[in-house]
Amino acid sequence: MSDSHHEESFWRKYIFSTDHKTIGIQYGITALLFLFFGFSLMMVMRWQLAFPDQAVPVIGGLIQWLAELNGFASIGNLPSDLYNVFGAMHGTIMIFLGVVPLVVGAFGNYVVPLQIGAPDMAFPKLNMTSYWVYFIGGVIMLVSFFLPGGAANSGWTSYPPLSVIATTGQTFWLLGMVFLITSSLLGSINIIVTIIQLRAPGLTWMRLPFFVWAQFVTSFLLVLAFPPLEAAGFFQLMDRVFDTSFFLPSGLVVGGEALDVSGGGSPLLWQHLFWFLAHPEVYVLILPGMGVIAEIIANNTRKPIWGYKSLVYSVVFLGFMSFIVWAHHMFMTGMGQGMSIFFQTTTMIISVPSVIILSCFMLSLWGGSIRFNTPMLFALGWIPMFGIGGLTGLPLGLSTLDIHLHDTYYVIGHFHYVVAPGTIFAIFAGIYYWFPKMTGKMLDETLGKIHFFFSFIFMNGIFWPMLIQGMAGVSRRLADGGESYAHAQGTLHLNEFMSYSAWLLAIAQIPFIINLIRTLLRKKAAEPDPNPWRATTIEWTDTTSPPMGHGNFEKVPTVYRGPYEYSVPGDSSDFTPQTSKLIKDR
Amino acid sequence: MEIPYNVQVREDTGLYNSKLGIWLFLASEVMLFGGLFSAYILLRTGAPVWPPIGEHGSIMHILKETIPHATFNTVVLIASSVTMVMAWVSLKMKDLRKFRIYLGTTLLCALVFLIVKYFEYSHKIHEGFVPSHDTYMALYFTLTGLHGLHIIGGMIVLGYFFGPGIKMWNNEPERFTNRIEIVGLYWHFVDLVWIFLFPILYLLN
């Protein structure tokens, strides 16, 4: 181990750092940029949906240049081939390069060691490696935009046979995914080992902050669910590069000609392997978000979180169940009645722990003296938004309803309610909450509230009409938004409304960006308040803001109590830190 | 700053960090090969005959010829697992000379395995049984190929501990012994994968 006192070079300190805090911030910045890029792709697509085949304003020239580079005709509009590329890459970038690196890479990395009183992650060098492997994966994905035929265009699900016969972009997608999967594996192994091995003395399992539990379960999902997708990725690479037929059935005809392959493969095999990852992946996205929300609700209601043990048992059960629900994405593939009934049943069962968690959060509000600061507003906004996402998912879990709802905008509306307001509100809440810890400076509350209220309104403006369109039967992935379909005509007018909401949502992020930059430029107080939220967990009570370089703590903290001891009777203050031995000893 | 339990065992878990890390890594490897094996099951149960008959007919006659080679390879890999344990035990007994002999034997076994594999591959490819011939060949090359990559990866790590990595023994013998234990666990896993691959690809046809 290096001596903590000597001066480090710029490269060691900021670029190839092994300090979990620096790596967390690296993840955070990179992932936020990817999040913005993925959102930008969607804003262009929303133009095409609202005003099909018209030239895109402002960046029409750029779109035309990219389209022609890829070999598509464009007059500044978004041609349907490029629409497919944008659609597939929007999903890929948002999930694998944006949200997962933010919730696990950034928050997990930065907060978990601090909350459990550890000097760093268990494997600091591995931690650095996982960031750079993620970075390479991201670069591969970005480079693929400039290939002939563009980036991957078979949807983020990459269903064969389409993906096997698709342009070179798909090969890059697979290679990029191998890097992203490897990065996630290394990162999550690190988090699990850190939580099991490096907990401070006295920090027993039932004293862990709920955020740590959420990260723990999430990491297990990543370790166990990602490898089957990696296996599937290898198969698809073989199909594309060595002309094997893992996913190609016999007698496949493409463009009027029989495909020259041996056949005998199964497209369903891909779907099984893909969804074996991709369903737990939904919980990878949402569980850390729930963890963030739990911290913020307990802190801002000034009372213990309601039902801590129920929360913990629910999150563990949720993690376990998430491995046996995957085929509810496949009801319409003809996989058989027996399979459908099994997966329909498990899907109904998995909704129970989610409801318990949501109920615990709502009951926590009861009788609290709530502080309506920005993190709390995002947390309060999160509850109904995730609620809508969860409840709209129940009908989709019933195989009969899927006959109508399958592959419509209803599905898009549902999972965006879970992932966009659900996860991203939690991310915003977390950024506002932990920013003072990371920098020693508070973000501006007024700008934060503007950011929250407008984001809240416009998110609903985008996703609620999708549910209506979907119930009318409008299919997803139509490059003209349904204009050429008779049954879509009744709900077609909603397209413009959703698009305006999307662009306004982008404008609503400006106060956030201004807030970040302005606060970063502001001079830091001589001795920043280490605990501005008056919180009980270790990262607030036992470190400076920001925490000191390698090592985090002056001396290893010892834990004496649970994570959310707010308003303990007999204590002079309304929060009792985990590390305070006696009530009133501070 | 020192990361706790890097070398020493944490009392309540009974593990040092990297031992837990390697078990988690192996769990993910089990899932990886689980995915690969499940593809084998699905494609095989869906095929009218196994191995499927392609452009060059069935692979069966060549497979029968190669069973002795694969059996030999199985023995070689099991032997390498044994010498791997012996290498670790030698370190526990503080005998560096024996450690080098056993680790060298392990490396040699791995090399023999790969050479036999190379002749098997080239024989099949020469007869026209390339991965795209039929789904059996596709599975055969993908599964044994990925297993071979695991062998090569293991050899690189073992080679490092045989060569420059051995210096750690002088200053931190305990940490070095832990490292050998961990790479040994990985090596046994790779061996175990072959124990599954051998029957499903060669014998059960």
| Derived structural class of chain B | mainly alpha
Supply the helix-strand structural class of chain A: mainly alpha
| Main interface: chain pair and counts | A-B, 47 and 45 residues
Shape of chain B: elongated
Count of distinct strands of chain A: 2
Helix percentage range of chain B: over 70%
Low-pLDDT windows of residues of chain A: none
Q: What share of the residues of chain A lie within helices?
A: 55-70%
Output the number of helix runs of chain B: 6
In short:
With 586 residues, chain A is mostly helical. In chain A, 62% of the residues lie in helices and 1% in strands. Chain A is built from 18 helices and two strands.
Structure description:
The complex is a heterodimer of chains A (586) and B (205). Chain A is mainly alpha-helical. Helix content of chain A is 62%, strand content 1%. Chain A has four domains: 20-160, no CATH class; 204-249 and 263-371; 375-522; 526-586, no CATH class. Chain A is built from 18 helices and two strands. The mean pLDDT of chain B is 95. Chain B has one domain (17-46, 60-203): Four Helix Bundle (Hemerythrin (Met), subunit A) (Up-down Bundle), CATH 1.20.120. In chain B, helix 2 packs antiparallel against helix 3 (96-126) and helix 4 (135-162) packs antiparallel against helix 6. Chains A and B meet through helix 7, helix 8 and helix 9 of A and helix 1 and helix 4 of B.
Question: Helices, strands, pairings?
Answer:
The complex is a heterodimer of chains A (586) and B (205).
Chain A: H1 10-15, H2 20-50, H3 60-70, H4 80-115, H5 124-143, H6 162-165, H7 169-197, H8 210-241, E1 253-254, E2 257-258, H9 267-301, H10 308-321, H11 337-365, H12 374-396, H13 399-405, H14 409-439, H15 445-471, H16 494-508, H17 510-521, H18 538-541
Antiparallel strand pairs in A: 1-2
Helix pairs in contact in A: 2-4, 2-5, 2-16, 4-5, 4-7, 4-8, 4-9, 4-14, 5-7, 7-8, 8-9, 8-10, 9-11, 9-12, 9-14, 10-11, 11-12, 12-14, 12-15, 14-15, 15-16, 15-17
Chain B: H1 17-46, H2 60-92, H3 96-126, H4 135-162, H5 168-171, H6 173-203
